[in-house]
Amino acid sequence: MLWIGQFGIADGEAKEDTPWVGIYRDDDREEDPSDLYVLVEPALPGSEEFCGEMKDAIGAIFHDTKASLTGGMLRALRSAHENLRDWNRRSLKEHRVAAGVSCVAVRDGEAFLAQVGPASAAFYHAGKLTKIAPSVPDSVDALGLNEEFWPEFTRIELADGDRLLVLSPGLAEAIPAKEMAAALTLDGEQTLPDLYRRARDQQNAAALLIAAQGEQDQGTGNKEQG
To answer: Residue 218: its pLDDT value, please?
Structure first.
């Protein structure tokens, strides 16, 4: 069973709906459903106003075009990249926009993470915390900046007790690894409040948690998936 939860902070206030994080469920498929979770990070000043529309477009394109999870994420990110590039071609240099994106597609306890920087995630498994960020050259720079890009994909099998946390890079930098690992040892319902307490000084931030836990430990987050 998977427990899904998220929080967002915009302009220093915690809000239920922010431009930074979105959950896009696969409600149309009875067989082999897959859900998408998106976290967007503005990479240039003035890019904030594009983030909400961009994450919603990524969610819609993923569900409309996916033949595979990675293929659907690639097409959705490519469309977002082209839209930003088109804006930048028609804009002055000081008005250019760009964004980093983390997408997680989940199906049957298997998660595929696609990242284009700036982006940050952490995977907690068997007592060990592994931080995940884009590292290959074509995935390090934000969407909208260069002619070409390629997201960095990470495949994750979620076993009982595992935690996949996707979060704003600024928030990731503000939480020491030991404190992040300690928060991720908690049940899903307890992890997010603990992380939020550490994020209250952030002007804009978001976190999305995918927690694999037994039925006896289930909480009442945004979603439970069996």
So the answer is: 41
Q: Where are the domains of the chain?
A: 2-216
Contact 122, 180 (CB under 8 A): yes
Q: How far apart are CA 77 and CA 72, in angstroms?
A: 9
Burial of 54 (0-12, 13-18, 19+ CB in 10 A): buried
pLDDT, averaged in runs of 10, over the chain (226 residues): 92 92 83 87 95 96 89 96 96 94 92 97 96 94 94 96 96 94 90 90 94 60 42
Q: Which strand (E) or helix (H) includes residue 110?
A: strand 110-116
The architecture that CATH gives domain 2-216 is 4-Layer Sandwich (3.60)
CA 180 to chain centre: 17
- CA dist list (Å): 128 to 112, 115, 212: 19, 21, 15
Which residue, 210, 184, 201, is CA-closest to 9? 201
Phi, psi of 188 (to 5 degrees): -50, -45
Nearest residue to 2 via CA among 43, 27, 35, 26: 35
- Given the structure tokens 């992380």, which residue do they identify? 195
> What is the rounded CA–CA span in Å between residue 20 and residue 25?
17
Report the pLDDT value the prediction gives residue 221, as an integer from 0 to 100: 45
- pLDDT score at 215: 58
Q: Give phi and psi for 122, each to the nearest 5.
A: -145, 140
Q: Within 13 A of 146's CA, how many CA atoms are on the CB side?
A: 13
